[in-house]
Amino acid sequence: MKTSYLIFSTVILSILLISFKPNTGSIKENDAASITKSSGSSPEDPFLTLADNSMKYPFVQEKLPYGYDALEPYIDKQTMEIHYSKHHAAYTENFNTAVEANNLKDASLFEIFGMISKLPAAVRNHGGGYYNHLLFWQVMAPNAGGQPTGKLAEDIATDFESFERFKEKFTDAAKTQFGSGWAWLSVNSDGKLFVSKTSNQDNPLMDVAEVKGIPILCLDVWEHAYYLKYQNKRPDYIAAFWNVINWKEVERRYTEALNVTMKK
Ligand code: MN3
Fold first, then answer.
1. The domain at 150-263 falls in which architecture?
2. What is the pLDDT, as a whole number, of residue 45?
3. Region 105-125: what's the mean pLDDT?
4. Which of 7, 83, 92, 198 has its CA 20 to 30 A from that of 134?
5. Three-state DSSP class for residue 191
6. Residue 72 Cα, ligand 1 centroid: separation in angstroms?
């Protein structure tokens, strides 16, 4: 039932995309088939079964799970307020506008990410901005930080040698991202953890990502995320982030990602 729905929606989406293209004479079946095939969102794509992929147009900005001042002193109240109520709100609004303009209303969020290379920059920038922040708010919490427990702790030790080594790698990715972007901890299609960085609002779910995977932890290193408190001192902001990581949520997302990758 679910598989046939996915096939159906992928086909409908391809037809919509083809029909939207300006200067398209007649629609050839081959064109639709090739877009579907190379989109990275085949019906077998395990990423599409993730809970976050139930998000569809109109995309809503979920309520911040804590107050603007809840992550003080590590992330200041003014930054949180502007970041959530201005930046994230604008990404959400502009993403919905881009979805409408590009006939993507029937596509799920991860289907859109899976074919982002074929879509206009507005969809890529605002779609990434919408989802990346949504994830970012959830993987932080007041009275958090420390280290993960259970299977995630064990697998971080296996895949990165130790928690300290992982912390170094993630910190390095966040520090060395040139200009605006994000640092990530994700799970690849083999169920292995990896650290990566992306530019602008790209994320590891997009077909343009150097390494594709399911993100379970992220850090925004755009200047708007830290400049009011830390100015040019990005390393200090990155160091402070470890005090607000909501490992319970990261562990929950890790378990889900492993279940999904094992299904493929
Ligand atoms: Mn941001």
1. 3-Layer(bab) Sandwich (3.55)
2. 74
3. 97
4. 7
5. coil
6. 17
